[in-house]
Amino acid sequence: MEIDKFNQTIDYWIDELDKFTIEQLLLKPDSNSWSLGQVYEHLIEDSNWYNSQIKFSLESDTFADKEISAKAKELLKRGAFENIKIKGDAENAAKVKQPISVSQLKSDMEKLKKETNNLWLEMQNDSVIGKSEHPGFGYFNCYEWLAFSEIHMRHHMRQKENLERFLGLNQ
């Protein structure tokens, strides 16, 4: 079930926060990279946007006849992004805010989990299944958005492991 997989993945991210100080979460390997705190902020920001797309698709059958792209079908079938590293630039690294505290990140992640679980309940009781547009993958319905949200969180786990090595925590 999609929500179980989502909860397992977000619980991993929430539980992992106990390993870090705010100082560790703010450190960046270089000016073109994100800190681990920025990875968390990115996950929160993007997942909240995915949830807004789930809400849209539950409220309207707009775009119901639109399709996801072939790449998106492949991604959802595989259940993971391709195993490639995406190199950012300094401008992109500066766009994502740094966290204020570990407790704030934990609170934001728990709020995200609660909201997503509430949306899951709506998805089970709602007969309207519209779609909304993903900027690179075509049109997702609410179930596809939820699956994509979980896939996106897992995608950043390797980045997290690399940042832990940088911090000297994952030898």
Structure description:
With about 170 residues, the protein is mainly alpha-helical. The chain has one domain (about 1-165): Up-down Bundle (Four Helix Bundle (Hemerythrin (Met), subunit A)), CATH 1.20.120.450. It contains eight helices and two strands. α1 runs antiparallel to α6 (about 100-125), α1 runs parallel beside α7 and α3 packs parallel to α6. It is globular, with a radius of gyration of 17 Å. It starts with a helix and ends in a 5-residue tail after the last helix.
Write the layout of secondary structure elements.
Layout: H1 2-16, H2 22-26, H3 36-59, H4 70-78, H5 90-95, H6 102-125, E1 132-134, E2 138-140, H7 142-155, H8 157-166
Antiparallel strand pairs: 1-2
Q: What is the percent of helical residues?
A: 55-70%
What share of residues are in beta strands? under 5%
Gap between N and C termini = 34 Å
- Rg for CA atoms: 17 Å
| Number of separate domains | 1
| Average pLDDT level | 92
| Sheet of most strands | 2 strands, antiparallel
| Order of strands across the main sheet | 1-2
Poorly predicted regions are none
